[in-house]
Amino acid sequence: AYYEGGTRGGGEFVADLQDLTTADDGGSCFVVLNNTARWKRIFDDRVDVVDFGAKSDEDATIAFENAFKYAGEHKKIITSEASTYFI
Fold this sequence. Notes:
single chain
């Protein structure tokens, strides 16, 4: 899960030990180990805003911005399991 105790936002990832430049966007790429590696999410044709940290009970602006940026750059469809978000 994206958040401790949550049930959504997990997924399949691959470790990229060669990439030292891709920014952590909170959804498709997570920088780890003092900037020595990245975990990169494997997406199908859809991107869920929850995968980028959107929560219905707090400001989700950054999560939406990052999800839309990634989806636009990679020709993905944005989805969400019905919820109301603050942006």
